[in-house]
Amino acid sequence: MSVLIKASGLGPVRLVFKQLSASRALSLSTKYYAETDTSKQKSSAEHFDIIIGGGGLVGTALAVALAKNKVLSDKRILLLEGAPPFRGFNVETQYGNRVSAINGNSVELFKSIGAWDYMQERRVKHVKQMQVWDACSDALIKFQDEHFAADVACIVENDLMLDAMYAQLADKNNMPNVEVRNNARIEALRLSVDTGDNYSQVHLKDGKTLTCELMIGADGANSLVRKQMNIDVFSVDYERRGVVATVQLEDACDNAVAWQRFLPTGPVALLPLSETLSSVVWSTTIAHAKELLDMPATDFTKALNEAFFKEYPKDGVVVNAMNTLNSLIGRDPNILRQYPPAVNDVIDKSRASFPLGFLHASSYVCSGAALIGDAAHRVHPLAGQGVNLGFSDVRELVKVLADAAYAGARLGDKHYLIKYEQRSLAKNVPIMVGVHGLHTLYSTTFTPVVLLRSLGLQLTDTFSPIKNLFMRRAMG
To answer: Fewest CB within 10 angstroms: 115, 345, 346, 404, which?
Structure first.
């Protein structure tokens, strides 16, 4: 055996050595050409300091806010939007069915970027009061500022908000550092944590390659940026749809009150637009949503009026408990209750629907990337907080990036991005948990739950400090 090993040992040893050498040579060659190819890509790629993926309300607001910040005014910013160029807003046309209830913080953001006056000059509806009540018990709460001095919210069409922000972006004398590219779809994305350097690579479907120091995901609930960040999400499909429409009121009125009633199938809201028009947001089952979209206009109008005025069956235990509470606190619910204006028509082609759900990313940032808006969080529209949370993200992120730039740090430095995450989480999580809890609480007709939520709602309305706490948070 030893002779055979001695006689033949040299050959196999040499053979293995040669194979290892060839393998290593191939590895080195592959690495060389890969690095050379990457270098070629970098040299041919167009570079930006910040690329924002998604040109919706939140992404566009971020682009304008970054450009308006004096510390960041020298940064080159690119806004990528997959849709065609925004067609603009015409105040002479009918109201759009996509509207948002903007709170005080969002108004301050628009003022800071020069967009609020633009909206005010066209059409913004100031809401002075909001009334919410339960169809299963008639428990009621009203929100308004003392002496109606401040707005509870402002109802603004989404297209008007976009138009106001694009008007700012079009002013190249004041905002030369921002570029908008439409019909620009991301095919592949390699973040800086993947490339091993300080730049992310964005490959577009038209074959172009871009690089950036900071990649922002403002690309919605199905965010490609979030997936590339390898971030886990907690999501819930509510198996409900939100039906929206623009409706004509039976009688002209001041129309400065927003109305919301919790039905057994979900909340229905009537948001004022003008003296004669309101916007409807009706959360309901998938099957019922389809019926509402398909039924004739007269039937839809009838169904909507019933949703607000119909007397639903009430459990005797709940009724007795509510009567006892009202007598103890000296409250006559019939005196305090107001009723919304009746609707007599729905504007043609204004009905549409969208799925409802809950989503929250486990993290908003990684080295070289950050998430804002629906890419990071998504909530039920019952409290009108969805887009306001996104605009809050914008304010916090701009502050952090300005601090990083002032300190001479990289924009993608995770040390700074974490500060944005912490500040946004502190604001977003309590609201998101509250909204999700309300949806869960009002998604049942189980008597003990109806009793508890009704007593809680009535007591909250009675004790001003508690109600004002909720109101201040909702109003921003």
So the answer is: 345
- Three-state DSSP at 345 gives strand
| Angle separating helix axes 464-475 and 447-462, nearest 10 degrees | 90
pTM, 2 dp: 0.88
DSSP string over 397-417:
HHHHHHHHHHTT--TT-HHHH
Domains contained in the chain, number: 1
- Beta strand pairing call for 257-263 and 129-134: parallel
Q: Which of 252, 294, 292 is nearest to 273 (CA)?
A: 252
Please answer whether residues 363 and 385 qualify as being in contact, where contact means their C-beta atoms are separated by less than 8 angstroms: no
Contact by Cβ (8 Å): 346, 300: yes
Q: Which domain holds residue 290?
A: 46-475
Is the residue at 26 inside a domain?
no
Kindly state whether residue 30 falls inside one of the protein's structural domains.
Answer: no
User: Do the domain assignments include residue 95?
Assistant: yes
* 176-231 pLDDT tens trace: 999 999 999 999 999 998 877 889 999 999 999 999 999 999 999 999 999 999 99
CATH number of the domain within which 318 lies:
3.50.50.60
d(CA 48, CA 401): 15
Q: Is residue 349, in this structure, part of any structural domain at all? A: yes
